[in-house]
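Fill in residues.
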């Protein structure tokens, strides 16, 4: 087990509603650009919510051409594997290639047996299956022969391991809205245990079917009705007028790497994973649990070896759910006590929507971008904060140097995760 070597992020990639690469994503964060718009979530049946932060104007081949420094052989392989694949596979390929390129793994001599793969995603083929129903009912025998592979989450493992020649451990993890953080934690543990030196962690895009969307509406989790005519104002984390999460889409990939491996390859880490926590609060329902959130943050701090007073920025879970926001704000205040008012808080979901399975990865990437570029993105819709004793970022971007930051993700079913990051 590697105990003396730190584990860092050496590459990142993203396809989202506010940017299809790190440069455009970063620019949107700085500008406070929202990806939430009027969209047609279902032509039949009609749904009561018609806003989301979906990936628009998507062309796999065109976006593939825009990725820099891909070897010709790798480009051809990616095109072959992705051109006729489901949307979720295509976006994973693109974000993973971006991260691979930034980590300079195209020129690496890292052994394929020492590279791991963690797919952070669950129920990712729901809409793909839903769209096939009418065709299947009419002509069942015309179902694609690849369907038996493509409806399985492990299709992501197969495609990406083939694309990148990965022969270490590879698997799929799920944790509801905390899935992205769970993926990072499990990738970190693979390296910590010495099983691999490098790990590709991929947050799968949430491609919800109309049934999934209606399910969230029925339990009161999804917002979008109160501000249906002003979609960019609908996601309101920690604001008195929040009503529920707004659905977002993003595929995000990061490369985790041991310090020893990064040094050997002469690659710099963008940020280090200082500590993490992943705990359950023994709850099968959707409601958040303050004690579980408190325990996750405290354990992450303990494992990071840092005092609560060392944290100066938190990228909150901040889902825009009234109960969720209230609970997280209480938990932060309980963990950080008198220091809580000194910590800047924002929620990337205000710009990207809630990207569900990939949300934790979206927010870790956003945290690293902000730490490295010296700014904090705004909470663009925060007009009346639910608490006055916490330091929420305002409606404008500010210059700020976060040195040690925390990123929270909490999921249905009592899943609580927290990650502590340090700028390298």
């Amino acid at each position: 087990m590697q105990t003396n070597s730190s584990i860092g992020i050496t590459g990142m990639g993203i396809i989202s509603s506010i940017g299809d690469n790190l440069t455009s994503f970063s620019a949107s964060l700085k500008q406070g650009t929202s990806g939430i718009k009027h969209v047609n979530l279902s032509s039949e049946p009609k749904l009561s919510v018609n806003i989301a932060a979906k990936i628009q104007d998507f062309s796999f081949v065109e976006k593939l051409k825009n990725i820099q420094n891909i070897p010709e052989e790798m480009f051809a392989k990616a095109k072959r594997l992705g051109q006729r694949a489901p949307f979720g596979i295509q976006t994973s390929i693109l974000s993973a290639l971006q991260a691979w390129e930034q980590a300079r793994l195209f020129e690496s001599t890292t052994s394929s047996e020492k590279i791991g793969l963690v797919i952070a995603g669950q129920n990712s083929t729901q809409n793909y299956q839903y769209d096939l129903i009418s065709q299947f009912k009419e002509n069942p025998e015309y179902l694609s022969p690849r369907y038996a592979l493509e409806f399985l989450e492990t299709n992501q493992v197969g495609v990406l391991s083939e694309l990148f020649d990965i022969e270490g451990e590879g698997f799929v993890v799920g944790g509801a809205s905390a899935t992205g953080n769970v993926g990072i934690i499990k990738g970190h543990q693979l390296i910590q245990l010495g099983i691999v030196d490098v790990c590709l962690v991929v947050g799968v895009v949430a491609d919800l079917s109309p049934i999934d969307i209606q399910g969230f509406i029925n339990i009161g989790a999804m917002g979008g009705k109160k501000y249906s005519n002003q979609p960019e104002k609908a996601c309101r984390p920690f604001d008195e007028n929040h009503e529920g999460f707004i659905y977002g889409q993003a595929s995000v990939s990061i490369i985790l790497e041991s310090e020893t491996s990064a040094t050997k390859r002469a690659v710099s880490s963008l940020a280090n994973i200082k500590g993490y926590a992943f705990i359950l609060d023994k709850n099968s329902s959707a409601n958040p649990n303050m004690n579980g959130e408190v325990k996750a943050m405290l354990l992450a701090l303990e494992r990071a070896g840092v005092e609560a007073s060392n944290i100066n920025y938190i990228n909150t879970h901040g889902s825009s759910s009234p109960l969720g926001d209230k609970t997280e704000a209480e938990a932060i205040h309980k963990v950080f006590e008198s220091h809580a008012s000194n910590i800047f808080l924002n929620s990337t979901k205000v710009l990207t929507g809630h990207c569900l399975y990939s949300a934790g990865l979206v927010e870790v990437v956003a945290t690293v971008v902000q730490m490295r570029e010296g700014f904090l993105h705004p909470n663009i819709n925060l007009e009346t904060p639910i608490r006055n004793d916490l330091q929420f970022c305002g409606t404008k971007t500010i210059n700020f140097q976060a040195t040690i930051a925390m990123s929270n993700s909490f999921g249905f079913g009592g899943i609580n995760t927290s990650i502590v990051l340090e700028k390298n």
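The mean pLDDT is 96.
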